[in-house]
Specification:
The complex is a heterodimer. Helices cover 51% and strands 11% of the residues of chain A. By secondary structure, chain A is α/β, with parallel strands linked by helices. Chain A starts with a helix and ends with a helix. Classes of the chains: A alpha/beta, B alpha/beta.
Chain lengths: 415, 207
């Protein structure tokens, strides 16, 4: 008899939880990013994810129905009209700066200048309002004309000073634009919510709730930019560390996401610039590891399961991950040698990965099977393993992605 | 003192390197000698990167130091000084992809290894590679890409070079993010380089 969506949901949740807790599930679970793959699979442009809600939902539902992974991350629908209104400077999306048939891409900006560390550390809210917003979003540019809120004056004079600032024509017009964007976004909130609910109703538990960045990555991606950050590692390492500490504190002050139906909180942590590709081991220890360890430990202490994506190659730092709390962390590897990682982390940290995107995109079905077999035999031995692609499946051949999933369901059964 | 500036740059002593440059320019020294010595410092940085002693932050910081020295020296140079070149290379991130980190590392390493590098930047259409090959007769082309869309974009670039009748004139290497041997076969490129050092090694073999 066919299983009900509720049964499937429970099974999938249990399978993944077992693997993270280093138990042996009924079979190797499968998690995949879905990204823009449903567009290629159903023959619609990627820009649908920004401009046609119904079609995007339909494409996702059809793809999930046909492929049936245990869990996946989605490329949620996001209204392009809202982006067009606020004009973000750090992103090109399909049909708007990027080809309608390609994924969105980020542009790294130097938001925080080299001499502005103290301004941020001493008053992050002021920096956010007057500098961060105006430098990341064209519609918010006039906010740079606002006075610091702490300088507004005593008593009712404070409110009056603010009132005067708000009618500066540029500021007033920026507020109008943001209001319009807000109204636009409010229209979508319920539908975006409905999107995830519909997927859950099909029997798929959400892969994660909320996310967190290691402070160094946050600085590198969205404050100083990589170039500025790396120069500061030499010119002003103490300031850089002070900023990272501040961001760590702010991250840990944020409320935890609410648990899902099964009581799990899987927190997604994409890690990028602490890898072998970007910094020395000594720099990793100084600028990265302490904060990463603290984040992971704190989230675990608060009942969450950090699900970490290690982008790039982390070969020389795998041993450090033995300091993560046992059976509470999922490590998704990209180009790191996953077989060696299994030897080191076996019985301590659950491993996810790592079918090459190149193989899924251009290989044969047999090649995919062979690779997955090796993963299941070696990394899947004794549990604590989740089958997954290395990174994006946007350009995967449907038959290859299907093979990764179906073969694992068949061959990855534990006895 | 000869060699001091080279060492200051190699050891990333920014203030010392800039101070020495200023002092030597003030005393009327040949700006070309200063530039040559600085380049030697950058070569050492490249060597240390190859040896795993330096990483990306050091490449970027040394580049920043060198840029400042070059800016100080250039107004005093009588003519554009061209460093002797091992050979020409054309490098770019393929169409549709705007990532530059990996590409910039390869450009840096080829440059300090003595190649004359034509850096076409990011999101480079196939035609731009073809035009540059025709213009420079460079025998080496490097295609970079971070996203999986680069699989097809690289293949289209290689195909376009072939269609333009230039495939026999150039060796093509590829690298970046999710690029590997599999994609080398798929695109018809001559080689795949796992990192910048592999890229330099390939380029030297192909001279």
């Amino acid at each position: 008899m066919e299983k009900t969506p509720e049964e499937l949901y429970r099974e999938r949740e249990q399978r993944v939880t077992d693997a993270i807790q280093l138990k042996i599930p009924d079979r190797v679970p499968i998690i995949t990013g879905m990204g823009y793959f449903p567009a290629n699979y159903t023959g619609i442009p990627f820009e649908t994810a920004y401009y046609d809600y119904d079609e995007w939902v339909a494409a996702y539902k059809r793809t999930l129905q046909d492929f049936q992974p245990d869990m996946f991350s989605i490329q949620p629908f996001f209204p392009g009209i809202f982006l067009e209104l606020i004009k973000p400077k750090g992103i090109r999306w399909p049909g708007h700066g990027a080809s309608p048939y390609h994924s969105h891409q980020s542009i790294e900006l130097e938001i925080l200048k080299s001499d502005e560390y103290d301004a941020y550390i001493e008053d992050p809210s002021d920096f956010m309002l007057r500098f961060y917003l105006s430098r990341t979003t064209e519609a918010a540019e006039p906010f740079k004309m606002l006075p610091p809120l702490s300088s507004l004056g005593q008593g009712y004079r404070g409110a009056l000073a603010l009132a005067e600032a708000l009618i500066i024509p540029e500021v007033a017009s920026a507020i109008e634009t943001l209001k319009k964007a807000g109204q636009e976004l409010a229209k979508w909130h319920s539908r975006i919510q409905a999107f995830s609910e519909e997927i859950e109703k099909m029997g798929f538990p959400p892969s994660g709730r909320g996310g967190a960045l290691v402070p160094f990555d946050a600085v590198s991606h969205s404050l100083r930019g990589m170039h500025g950050t790396m120069i500061d590692m030499h010119r002003q390492p103490d300031k850089l560390l002070e900023l990272c500490e501040k961001i760590l504190e702010m991250t840990l002050d944020r409320p935890m996401p609410t648990p899902n139906k099964s009581g799990n909180i899987r927190v997604f942590m994409p890690l990028t610039r602490g890898s072998d590709d970007f910094m020395s081991l000594k720099q990793f220890e100084t600028f990265y590891w302490t904060h990463l360890k603290k984040l992971v430990q704190t989230f675990a202490d608060r009942g969450a399961q950090p699900c970490i994506f290690f982008e790039g190659n982390w070969d020389t730092r795998v041993e450090y991950f033995l300091e993560f709390p046992r059976g509470k962390v999922l490590a998704h590897f990209d180009t790191t040698d996953i077989f060696r990682a299994k030897e080191i982390l076996n019985g301590h940290v659950s491993i996810q990965g790592n079918v090459p995107s190149s193989l899924l995109g251009t290989g044969t079905v047999q090649e995919v099977k062979d690779y997955c077999k090796k993963l299941i035999d070696v990394v899947g031995k004794d549990g604590g393993y989740i089958m997954s692609p290395r990174s994006s499946v946007d350009e995967a051949r449907p038959e290859n992605l299907r093979t990764m999933i179906d073969f694992t369901k068949e061959y990855g059964v534990y006895n | 003192m000869s060699g001091e500036l080279t060492n200051a740059i190699a050891d990333l002593q920014e203030n010392e390197a800039l101070g020495m440059t200023q002092k030597r320019l003030d005393s009327g020294e040949d700006p070309k000698a200063i530039l040559d010595e600085s380049r030697k410092g950058m070569e050492i940085v490249g060597k240390r990167f190859s040896d795993g002693e330096y990483f990306l932050p050091e490449l970027i910081f040394s580049g920043e130091i060198f840029k400042q020295i070059a800016e100080m020296v250039k107004p005093k140079l009588k003519e554009e000084v061209k460093a002797e070149s091992l050979g020409k290379c054309i490098i770019g991130t393929v169409a549709g992809d705007i990532h530059d980190i990996g590409k910039d590392i390869v450009v840096f390493m080829l440059d300090v290894s003595g190649f004359e590098v034509y850096d076409l930047g990011i999101d480079v259409p196939a035609q731009a590679f073809i035009d540059k090959i025709k213009e420079t007769n460079a025998p080496i082309v490097g295609l970079s890409g971070f996203l999986t869309l680069a699989f097809d974009s690289m293949k289209e670039t290689v195909d376009a070079i072939k269609a333009a009748g230039l495939r026999d004139k150039v060796k093509i290497m590829i690298g970046g993010g999710q690029i590997d041997e599999q994609i080398m076969k798929y695109t018809g490129a001559d080689a795949y380089g796992r990192d910048a050092m592999a890229g330099v090694k390939l380029a030297k073999q192909w001279l």
